[in-house]
Structures are given as structure tokens and as C-alpha cells.
Design a protein that fits this description.
The chain is an all-alpha fold. The chain has helices at residues 5-10, 17-49, 54-70, 72-82, 84-102, 108-122, 124-136, 139-170, 173-181, 187-194, 207-213, 219-223, 232-237, 249-253, 256-285, 291-319, 325-342, 349-364, 367-372, 383-411, 414-433; strands at 240-241, 437-438. The longest helix is centred in the first third of the chain and has 33 residues, at 17-49.
Length: 444
């Protein structure tokens, strides 16, 4: 948005501190994502020390996500009550402590307790980031900022198999958790010092940047109605509506748009979680890759996911004029196709990595849309609750699928696992079709 007349006349350029904020939450969540991903890399070696079935191994992965899912609504209350800055900083410190404790676990019970503690500790982080995006970025940049955030979630699993396999090869699986706990003790301090809850409270932000964030416009711009660029066939299919603002907690809980978004995210994040938990084991047991080879090939889907999240955010904000549903629908269909392709995954590491790269890229194109979607029709003070519902849905899916995959593997095989993921991705498509595409001044 343009600056107002007085600011333009003064010649004062706006600061760009919001992008430093984005860089910082990118770093912090990369480490947080690595803290949750390191179990997948260590799992084949943990199973050598502690005997467990596939279902029990899947349940161990799911414990984190169950705790993470159920802490979302309480996290929204904490952030609303105490602000992002305090809750987010405390959450990251506790996340690092829980990660370090996993490295000292001496039994399956202790491992389970550490995973539950990690889920509770890390739970407030995503709501903190999305609330920061909602407060620190204008609407035309929210998709890109969300793409940056979600790319960090996928960058963690990129670095974890590579670094983790090296640590395991030279020391052991416990040292993986101790190594990844260290950065999480420094970064929260930087967040507390450099990021305020509101841009207007920050000494690093001038009034010009505050006006950009708040989308302050000139008098002429206020009088001029925004021209909505129609895409007739697409708009009809994605149900473009001039949706009323959701301004109360009760309205949030009654909104099918919020719950439908959460259900779609449940299925898609379930696929991501399953791949994160089981692909290292699949590559070692089914494709007979070396530990180092497994580390590099396991990173491939998450390299694709980093690019997919960034691409999805840019497409959503620019090419699609802030339409969010097309990215969700495209991801759902293309992911289902990729799951069928994985049925015929070759043992060649290069081809295997290429297939997994494309899977991660296509799966992630729509992820930023799930984060941004409620921002367009939910009031800022109620957004943490809406985001908690969407993210809780996603994490419940993420908790269920590793366990379900373990049960499938105990009775059937990997082909059935891939068919299961293809099916729930198609379910995503059917659910997302039913929610509205909220757009201002669309006259629909």
C-alpha cells in the first residue's frame, strides 16, 4: 500500500524490520522442526536398543503430535492473555529442554514422556508465528510470510537426516537430540529482544513501516473501491464469497470455513507426518540404502517442500490475487497422483530422491494457504482461536497417520500405505471444495 501524502512529502523511507522478524521466526522454527524430526532419523537405531513393533514405533511418533494438537486451544488462550512475546520465548526454551532430555532417555517409557513433553512445550510456537504474521504483515504479504514460516518447518527435516546420520555414524542416536537442543537456547533470547507483539511498539520500526503494515491509505485511495479481478470459471468453482467478518469466539466455533480448513489440513499434514516418520525406515529396510544414503535421500521431500511453500505463498499473493483455495486443491490432487507414483519407486538413490522431491514440492504448494486462509475473514483478536482450530486439526491428522501406517505395515505392506495416503489426499480435495473463498468487494 502507498504511504499517505504527509509521509510521501517528508521523503522518509519505511524501515523493513518485518522481514527481519520473518528471518528470525524462520530460524527458530527450523530448529523446532528439527527437534520434532530427529526421532524419524533415530527411530531405526532406537528400535535396535528397545524392541517394538511397527505399530508401537508409530505410536511413539504420534505421542508428540497428540500432545501438540491438544495444547493448541490452551496455547491460543495463553497468547491472547499474555501476548506472543512472552509465551513464544518460554515455549522455545522448554522445547530445547525437552529435546535434550530425550537424549538421556533410558527406557521406552522415558522416551514416551519426553515426546509428550516436547509436544506440550512446542505447541504454542505455530500460533505465535501465525499471530506475528497477522500483526506484522499487510494482507498482500501474508501468503509470502506464511510460505517463509512453513518452509522453515520443512527445512528442519532437510538438515536433520544429513546431520543426524553423521552424528549417529560417529557417536550414537542419543547425541542427535543433545546436538539439536543447543540452538534453541540462544534464539529465544534474540526473539525477546528484537520482536514486540505489535509493530508500533518496536523501536526498530518507524511510522512509515507501521502505516504499510496497517495498510494506511491516502484519502483518494479510501474513496476508491478496490477493483476485484474476476476469474469467472475458477471463482465459481472455488465458491468466491463476500464473507462477513467473524468477530466473536462463538462465531469462530460455528464457522464451517474454519473447521473445513482444519479438516483439510488434518489430511494433508497427516501425509507430511507419515513421510517424516517412516521414510527413513522405508529407505533402509525396503530400498537397502546405506545410513548416509538414507540421510541424503530422506532430505529430498523436504527440499521440495521448502520450495513448494515459498512458491505457494507467492502464487497465492500475486498470481491468484490472494485466492487461497486453488493452492489447497492443487496440492490435494497432485499429492494423490504422487502417492500412486511412489508405488513404483526404484531402488536407485537418484531416482528415488527425485520422486520424493516432487512429492514434497507438490504436497506443500497449498500449505501456506491453510495458515493464511482464516486471516481474511476472522478479526485479528480472534485469529489465535481460529488458527488453533486449524492447527489442531492438522496435528491430530499428523498424530494419527504414523500410528495407522504402523498398523498397516504390521498386516499388509508399503503399497497399502501409499494407497492410504492417496485416498486421504483425495478426501482433502472433497472437503476443501465445500468451504468458501472469502474475498472483499467481489459482489458475489
Amino acid at each position: 500500500m502507498s504511504l499517505n501524502i504527509e509521509q510521501a512529502a517528508s521523503g522518509v523511507k519505511p524501515t523493513h524490520h518485518r522481514w527481519w522478524v520473518a528471518f528470525l521466526f524462520f530460524l527458530i522454527y527450523t530448529i523446532a522442526a528439527a527437534d520434532r524430526a530427529n526421532l524419524g532419523v533415530a527411530l531405526p537405531f532406537i528400535r535396535k536398543e528397545f524392541t517394538m513393533t511397527n505399530a508401537e514405533a508409530g505410536a511413539l511418533v504420534s505421542l508428540f503430535l497428540l500432545a501438540y494438537a491438544f495444547i493448541q486451544i490452551p496455547s491460543a488462550w495463553l497468547i491472547t492473555r499474555f501476548g506472543v512475546r512472552k509465551v513464544f520465548t518460554s515455549s522455545m526454551v522448554l522445547t530445547s529442554i525437552a529435546t535434550a532430555l530425550t537424549g538421556f532417555a533410558g527406557s521406552i517409557l522415558q522416551l514416551k514422556l519426553c515426546r509428550v513433553l516436547l509436544g506440550i512445550a512446542e505447541g504454542p510456537l505455530p500460533i505465535g508465528v501465525t499471530s506475528t504474521i497477522n500483526n506484522w504483515f499487510p494482507s498482500k504479504e501474508k501468503g509470502i510470510a506464511s510460505g517463509i514460516f512453513l518452509s522453515s518447518i520443512k527445512l528442519g527435516p532437510v538438515i536433520t537426516p544429513i546431520i543426524g546420520s553423521f552424528i549417529i555414524l560417529h557417536w550414537g542416536w542419543k547425541e542427535v537430540f543433545l546436538f539439536f537442543a543447543l540452538p534453541g537456547l540462544l534464539l529465544p533470547v534474540m526473539w525477546f529482544l528484537f520482536v514486540k507483539d505489535k509493530p508500533s511498539e518496536s523501536s526498530f520500526v518507524n511510522q512509515q513501516e507501521v502505516d504499510i503494515i496497517n495498510e494506511k491509505r491516502t484519502a483518494a485511495q479510501v474513496q476508491e473501491k478496490k477493483v476485484y479481478k474476476r476469474i469467472p470459471y475458477l471463482d465459481r468453482f472455488i465458491r468466491v464469497r463476500n464473507t462477513p467478518k467473524v468477530t466473536t469466539t462463538q462465531q469462530v466455533y460455528r464457522s464451517w470455513n474454519v473447521f473445513g480448513c482444519g479438516l483439510g489440513y488434518c489430511c494433508q499434514l497427516g501425509i507430511s507426518s507419515l513421510l517424516l516418520a517412516w521414510i527413513p525406515t522405508y529407505l533402509l529396510s525396503e530400498k537397502n540404502l546405506s545410513v548416509v544414503g538414507m540421510g541424503f535421500v530422506s532430505a529430498a521431500p523436504w527440499v521440495g517442500a521448502v520450495l513448494g511453500n515459498l512458491l505457494g505463498g507467492i502464487l497465492s499473493d500475486t498470481l491468484l490475487d490472494k485466492r487461497r483455495k486453488p493452492g489447497m486443491l492443487l496440492s490435494a490432487v497432485s499429492t494423490s497422483v504422487m502417492m500412486l507414483c511412489l508405488l513404483y519407486m526404484p531402488a536407485n538413490p537418484v531416482l528415488c530422491a527425485l520422486l520424493l522431491f516432487m512429492t514434497g514440492l507438490l504436497l506443500s504448494i497449498g500449505f501456506s494457504a491453510y495458515m493464511v486462509y482464516p486471516m481474511s475473514f476472522v478479526a485479528k483478536d480472534k485469529f489465535p482461536v481460529a488458527n488453533a482450530i486449524v492447527n489442531m486439526g492438522g496435528q491430530l491428522g499428523g498424530a494419527a497417520t504414523p500410528f495407522i501406517a504402523g498398523l498397516i505395515l504390521d498386516h499388509y505392506g508399503w503399497n497399502t500405505v501409499f494407497l492410504f495416503m492417496a485416498g486421504i489426499s483425495l478426501l482433502t480435495f472433497l472437503v476443501v471444495v465445500t468451504i468458501d473463498e472469502p474475498m472483499e468487494n467481489c459482489d458475489a
